[in-house]
Amino acid sequence: MNNTFIITVEEQNINFDPNDKTLLNNLEKNNVEVHYHCRDGFCGACRVTLAEGKIHYPNGEPLAFVGENEILPCCCIPASNIRLIIE
Q1: Concatenated DSSP letters for 8-61?
Q2: In the predicted model, is pLDDT for residue 17 greater than 90?
Q3: How many Cβ atoms are within 10 Å of 64's Cβ, its own excluded?
Q4: Which of 2, 12, 40, 70 has the fewest CB atoms within 10 Å, counting from its CB?
Q5: pTM (two decimals)
Q6: Residue 47: how many other CB atoms lie within 10 Å
Q7: Residue 1 confidence (pLDDT) above 60
Q8: Which domains does the chain carry?
């Protein structure tokens, strides 16, 4: 799987670094604030809207509820270029 994707969030383009392991780690490294309480897909506090693109959950689907077009960056990685909406 190609992991060199662009993340667009808050009018900023960020290169996903596969060494970061998760989207949340990558966003934090690039000073994008995302609220969270865990890093394993259990609580759902880091939920953001996936406006464009595709993601992948390498360790399986999260246990927390995610609505349509919502993702949990704590446990996913991009599978294409993506655009996020963080509220």
Answers
A1: EETTEEEE--GGG-SHHHHHHHTT-----S-SSSSS-TT-EEEEES-EE-TT-S
A2: yes
A3: 18
A4: 2
A5: 0.91
A6: 21
A7: no
A8: 6-85 (3.10.20.30)
